[in-house]
Amino acid sequence: MTPTDMTLPKQIQSQDEKAFETLTERYETQFWTHTLRTVRNEAAADDLIQELFLRVWPRAGQWQGQGSVKGWLYRIATNLALNHLRSVRRRRDQALGIPISDDNDEITTPAWMIYADAVDAQGQLEKAESAQLLQQLIKELP
């Protein structure tokens, strides 16, 4: 008998490896695709999906039975992806000890040090945050 989504977290909480394997097989591909769309980097998506399921194992008891397990997993996966994008942005924004140009006092970063996927992803993150802010402001209109 195949366990339902509603019973899997309780089974995982009691350290049932088969339930964990079932949950992973059921959602790994779907969440990998979702994460890849957010971070636009296959290696990062692989790492984030592994992190998602590594978090589920010890924290299955955090799911309170409200909503769907799939929704709970989406929230975790999305938060991990957004945190990854923020981390990439912080790393890109931090000074790397590269000499400052005498001409215009700007830090010059060699092209090989720029993570091109993060530039695209960061733009998407900013666009999504702007859209969210716009929706919030529209809701506040009389």
Measured distance between first and last alpha carbons: 54 Å
Helicity level: 55-70%
Q: What's the count of strands?
A: 0
Fourth-level CATH superfamily = RNA polymerase sigma factor, region 2, helix turn helix motif
Gross morphology: globular
| H-E order | HHHHH
Question: Which structural class should the secondary elements be placed in?
Answer: mainly alpha
CATH topology: Rna Polymerase Sigma Factor, Chain: A
Report the top-level CATH class: Mainly Alpha
Low confidence ranges: none
Tell me the count of domains.
1
The CATH architecture term is: Orthogonal Bundle
For the sheet with most strands, the description reads:
none
Number of helices: 5
In what range is the share of β-strand residues? under 5%
Radius of gyration: 20 Å
Mean pLDDT, rounded to whole units? 81
Please tell me about this protein's structure.
This protein has 142 residues and is mainly alpha-helical. The protein has a single domain, classed as Rna Polymerase Sigma Factor, Chain: A, CATH 1.10.1740. The protein is 68% helix and 0% strand. The protein is built from 5 helices and no strands. The longest helix is centred in the middle third of the chain and has 25 residues, at 69-93.
SSE map:
Layout: H1 8-13, H2 17-39, H3 42-59, H4 69-93, H5 116-140
Question: What's this entry about, in short?
Answer:
This protein is mostly helical and 142 residues long.
Which descriptors would you attach to this protein?
mainly alpha; single chain; Rna Polymerase Sigma Factor, Chain: A; 142 residues
